[in-house]
Amino acid sequence: MEAAGGLLARARPRRAEAVRLRKRRSVLYGAPGGRRGGGAPGESPRLLALAVALRGLNCALVQTSFVPDEYWQSLEVAHRMVFSYGYLTWEWENGLRGYSYPLIFASIYKVLQLLAKDDVQLLYFCQLCSWFTWYSCTRTLTNSMETLLTIFALSYYPIKGSKMGSSCKYLTLIALAIVIRPTAVIPWIPLVFNHFWQEQKKADLILHNCIPVGLVTAGTSLIIDRVFFGKWVLVQLNFLKFNVLQNLGTFYGSHPWHWYFTQGLPVILGTHLPFFIHGCVQAPKRYHIFLMAVIWTVLVYSMLSHKEFRFIYPVLPLCMFFCGYSLKQLKAWKKSAASFLLLSNLLPALYTGLIHQRGSLDVMSHVQQLCNNSYQSQASVFIMMPCHSTPFYSHVHCPLKMRFLQCPPDLTGNKSYIDEADLFYSNPLAWLNEEFYNDTLLPSHLIFFSVLEQEISSFLALKGYEKSATVFHTHVPQGRVGSHIYVYRKKAEMNHA
Question: Which residue ranges make up each domain of the chain?
Answer without folding.
Answer: 14-32+41-354, 359-493
